[in-house]
Task: inverse folding
């Protein structure tokens, strides 16, 4: 999954990137409200963690612009403003969840995972498609109840396909959500990851619809 962390405090921003990356997200960061608005308006993310106290354009204004423009990405708001009135204002502006500072990174990660699951229409931490199951809290994979060892990249790919298991996911979309700007976003790199997973999972788990993309078999 692809996440944007918007925070102007360098220490908190680095901690967010570390925690979300460890939780299976491909993380991008920015520290300015105008840049945040542009990125959220032009890129596709599975989650945004948004601080309200930003330079250039405050987080609440950024959020309002996204929602006015039809952007439906799940947004977890961070703020040092602790009054209930400000929390209500954030929710009414379109925030999906609200976490006051200071916070525990473990709670943020748990909330982030829950937001992504709910956005995909799946509430439970354990996700299943046919014989395949993923525990999104422990970041583990099992096939017919038996654990399967996967790399971080392989897990991210399976988690994204699982989140969108009701449709065929195009290769370009998978590349966008799996790889960073500094990584090689080439179709043959994606095919190599798919091939490794098929060797581990066997046939009939990851299906290809030629000319369209990939999906998990439900049967």
Result:
């Amino acid at each position: 999954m692809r996440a944007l962390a918007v925070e102007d405090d360098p220490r908190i921003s680095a901690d967010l990137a570390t925690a979300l990356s460890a939780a299976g997200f491909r993380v991008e960061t920015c520290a300015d409200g105008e840049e945040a608005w542009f990125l959220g308006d032009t890129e596709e993310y599975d989650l945004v963690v948004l601080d309200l106290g930003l330079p250039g354009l405050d987080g609440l204004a950024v959020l309002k612009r996204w929602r006015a423009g039809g952007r439906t990405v799940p947004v977890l708001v961070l703020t040092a403003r602790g009054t209930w009135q400000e929390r209500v204002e954030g929710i009414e502006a379109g925030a999906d969840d609200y976490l006051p500072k200071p916070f525990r990174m473990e709670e943020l990660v748990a909330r982030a995972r829950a937001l992504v699951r709910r956005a995909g229409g799946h509430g439970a931490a354990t996700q299943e498609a046919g014989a395949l199951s993923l525990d999104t809290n422990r970041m583990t994979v099992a096939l017919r109840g038996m654990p399967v060892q996967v790399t971080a990249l392989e897990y991210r790919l399976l988690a994204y396909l699982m989140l969108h298991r009701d449709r065929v996911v195009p290769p370009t979309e998978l590349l966008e959500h799996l790889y960073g700007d500094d990584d090689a976003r080439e179709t043959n790199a994606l095919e190599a990851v798919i091939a490794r997973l098929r060797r581990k999972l066997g046939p009939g788990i990851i299906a290809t619809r030629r000319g369209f993309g990939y999906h998990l078999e439900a049967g």
Observations:
- The chain is about 40% helix and 20% strand.
- The chain has a mean pLDDT of 90.
